[in-house]
């Protein structure tokens, strides 16, 4: 049923100068999964995901993307399969208008003029960019500019999206938009890898969280499992969402049997418990 | 505190940027006392940055636009006072340190402001060592600012502000590009300055859970208008108002609000905003 799209087998990466950035990484990402990759700066997150689109090649071990060993493959080839959306869209965007920006990728892929327009229009619709299609990418606000960065990659129809901190610089409303878009990408059959410190994104949007610390994967599990392991989280200075921390504190007094990942779950758990208390008292 | 004079007094402040028609700020009235820790909340475009630029006189003195009303900082009207002098009263830290860093060493970065006010070399060396020590970067004088981590860069920017002995530290989403350790470092330094030196801290932030822990007061802006102003408990308890303008409240506040709505609990006042506050409330509900 599940089909792997990215597989790392005993992946190591040592930078010239001898710095070991990744060790013993074994990881399998299935088609259609949303993965969160988290860890402090310098933990190896970026080094890891750069192996997915061939920006880096293993110094030891194997990385398979869509069944192919990346070692001999060119980045031009891999980038069609794995799209990388930068944290800072200013590092990515350069065209005069959003429309031109969204044509660049497909044109570069050698598509016909007609197909280029089709890809552009699909991206404009998917990301809701209708009103700004003629704008200069630098004349629109930062949150929208980040969406344009995602849209530009979307036009190339990669199978895997790597999103580097997709919610930084976003406010509550635009953050929710990004969450919705990530789910929509998955619904279209894409695989999404989010490198992110946004704990709510990790708790509510992703299927699986991969935690890196000092070049090693120290956890690879569901958000609930990861956020339940408080000691592991603390060891790498990650703080679970506020609601998960509260559920941990109330676990014993309220006899809760799960770490709540979102407010909905906690409302459910406490409503049940509080109604029992009310019944006992009456 | 009652008789204390406000360090920031904003009276009927409205502002429109040149070549725009909408108010960026509209009829703001706000007094902040010395030593308060104030969080500015609002969606992007709500006026948070504009309000902060009004504190150090960049608005109206350096940005084109039309200002009405008054901003009095430490007794001085920003309209009549040069921005370079205002830098001694208000230190600013922005969201992206890249936009602020201009020098090749940490020491030079910090010296920039001091040189402008004519500090002697010996005095400068002393101040630089002192402020770096304070923000947890002792001995970093000769490092390149670009070789620092994001959290270190922002602490260096705070140190550069501190060198001028400001009374107010204004920070505009200072941790939006930082990892969790970097965030902790920056907020810890700001909290230390606030507690130990009674420095007035004003932070524009999106992370409501974090601000619920640190701030004495929350000011909420929406489309340039101040719609709420009060303690975190008071402001975040206005769940309907905040949700209507697209802001979220701390998760534990939303929890208490929804349990109240579904009649699981009764509250007749403010809702909890921190994990500690919520823990205490929920434990007492079941008699623990």
What does this entry look like structurally?
The complex is a heterodimer of chains A (282) and B (288). Chain A is an alpha/beta fold and 282 residues long. Chain A is built from eleven helices and ten strands. In chain A, strand 4 and strand 5 (68-69) form a beta hairpin. The longest helix of chain A is centred in the C-terminal third of the chain and has 19 residues, at 263-281. Chain A is globular, with a radius of gyration of 21 Å. The termini of chain A are far apart. Chain B is an alpha/beta fold and 288 residues long. Chain B has two domains: 6-249, P-loop containing nucleotide triphosphate hydrolases (Rossmann fold, 3-Layer(aba) Sandwich), CATH 3.40.50; 250-288, no CATH class. In chain B, the strands form two sheets. Chain B has a six-stranded mixed sheet with strand order 6-7-8-3-9-10, sandwiched between helices. The two termini of chain B are 36 Å apart. The mean pLDDT of chain B is 93. The interface between A and B is large, with 39 and 38 residues.
What's the short version?
Chain A is α/β, with parallel strands linked by helices and 282 residues long. Helices cover 42% and strands 22% of the residues of chain A.
CATH architecture of the largest domain in chain B: 3-Layer(aba) Sandwich
Order of helices and strands of chain B: EEEHHEEHEHHHEHEHEEHHHH
Largest interface chains and counts: A-B, 39 and 38 residues
Strand order of the largest sheet of chain B: 6-7-8-3-9-10
- Count of individual domains of chain B: 2
Name of the level-1 CATH class of the largest domain in chain B: Alpha Beta
Helix-strand makeup class of chain A: alpha/beta
Q: How many angstroms does the end-to-end distance of chain A come to?
A: 52 Å
The biggest sheet of chain A amounts to: 6 strands, mixed
